[in-house]
Prior knowledge:
mainly alpha; Transposase DDE domain-containing protein; Tnp_DDE_dom
Amino acid sequence: MPFKAHAARRHRIPEQRHRITSWSEYDAALRQRGSLTVGFPEDAIAAWRAEPRTTRGGQPHYSALAIRTALMLRAVFRLALRQTEGLIGSILRLPGLD
């Protein structure tokens, strides 16, 4: 097409600065970019589940520490609530906390 709207402001992919010589290292670096390493101290793992309630009502599943951790990750990664639930679920499956 000879004319495109807002051509001066359109996103352009820049030219590559370096020539890739080792594709295996480049591929490993790209995979490492998406990796997320989360470490939980032993006391946090022990406090993850909520204490049983002694009064009437339903039993809570998670402690206040777990809820604060989820909300902090939500704020850091700017996630919606259901996406945060998925992230916490996948993090808990890694070390076998679930």
